[in-house]
Amino acid sequence: MKSLYSNLNLMSMVSALNEHFAAYFHEATRPMRSLLCGIVLAMLAFESIPSIRWMHRRFHLSLMPGSLNSYYRALKTCTVDDSSWVSHTIRRALSAIPSDLADAPLFLSVDDTIVAKAGQCFDFVSKLFDHAMHTGSAYVNGHCFVSLMLSVPVDKDMKGGCSGGIHYLHVPVVYCLWTKEKTKLEMAADAIDAVMRDLEGKHIVVLCDSWYPKKKFISRILSHENADIICNVRVDTAIYDLPPARTGKRGRPCKRGAQLSLDDFACTYSRGKFKVGHRCVKTKIFGDITVHAYVTVSESGARRLFICTAEPSEIRFGCASHTDDPNTTVGDTDREFLPLSLYSIRWNIEVGYYEHKTFWSLGRYMLRRRCGIERLLNLICMAHASMRLLPYVDTRFARFKECSPQEVRMAISKQIQDELFLSRLADEASNTINSADILSVLRDMVKHWNNAA
């Protein structure tokens, strides 16, 4: 691309973003790296991307080399390893953690989402049950994706330059298309196993809703020494009291005590509009380990059951500094109920799905093959993650720390389009008689914009 950096010898937003995203594709060839960077830059330059063809006509055709087919080949080629993108995102997220929060737990939220598609021409499209549909039918034709979101602690800057305590930055990590070759539980466990290699030495807490806590999934997660689970489970999950003390008599001691019901929990602790009860229990799905069970009771009397494998007193977390929910403060005397407060972090993966589908064209892809679909969605995931991480890992974007990813994207989009306009103007000016004077004016304009940015 003939950017202002080459025409005017000035550092520009385009070149800064090229430098940032090229690090993701360091294993690819130079032409492939240029094509993939071009796709991500186009995602940032426009509010929505209806299709690769539209992107090519509006952005790539007059600015970058390569035919339309070359971009399709870049999305479906097997010469690029997508797993390296996930590792790079995780390393960037870890680099945003300040040293004084290095011992705070990291959270991995796992969930799945459905994207409706018309027709049967897409790989692995099928009829799926979606409880959130409001079309008169609970079934939709489309794709199901299993995804992960990593939450890392950062310092929250308040007015006056003072620290506002711990704030968790929620970074989407990966999308995996469900192909029916494996269950969604196996796909989620495989994805977690893959990212755990980059999270050694960190206390990882996996957050999931009531669909995922099954015995095989739980055993896969707990096979990692540094992993715990906080999850919502079905209210009919069998829970048991702790085994009674040994009497010294002959015979095998009991593994579990009497079976408990949700009514056996004394729900006396107030948390917002809920009353909460807590007990240490045994369960079948978690094996022989002792877990912490929490029962919440709403004003209408509805009950929910949550399970935590971590010991609340051993979670290295500044309770009073947690700022994800400003209406909820957990002091030292309430530490036993801390896991229930931390479970609320899981909701951010639902917010991420909404942002991707509303602002990042997640469901508008027109690619047919599995490889291309997954790669395009992971490029969207990468772009969204970068909008969250850039303010914390690059000082040039530090002023966006308190902004949403969409606000960061809008500011970057405006500057990209301004630079591309000046780049074309500089190309035309280089062929005129008074090119030196025109280029001098353009340099002053770019300096003014870069200083303002």
Could you please describe the fold and organization of this structure?
By secondary structure, the chain is an alpha+beta fold. It folds into two domains: 4-80 and 403-452, no CATH class; 83-236 and 311-364, no CATH class. 37% of the residues lie in helices and 20% in strands. The protein has 13 helices and twelve strands. Strands 1, 2, 3, 4, 5, 6, 7, 8, 9, 10, 11 and 12 form a twelve-stranded mixed sheet that branches. Strand 5 (204-208), helix 8 (215-222) and strand 6 form a beta-alpha-beta unit. It is elongated.
How would the blueprint of this fold be written?
Blueprint: H1 4-8, H2 13-22, H3 30-45, H4 52-60, H5 68-76, H6 83-95, E1 106-116, E2 126-129, E3 139-157, E4 163-177, H7 184-196, E5 204-208, H8 215-222, E6 227-233, E7 239-240, E8 259-260, E9 269-271, E10 274-283, E11 291-297, E12 303-308, H9 338-342, H10 347-359, H11 370-393, H12 405-429, H13 435-452
Parallel strand pairs: 1-5, 5-6
Antiparallel strand pairs: 1-3, 2-3, 3-4, 6-12, 7-8, 7-10, 9-10, 10-11, 11-12
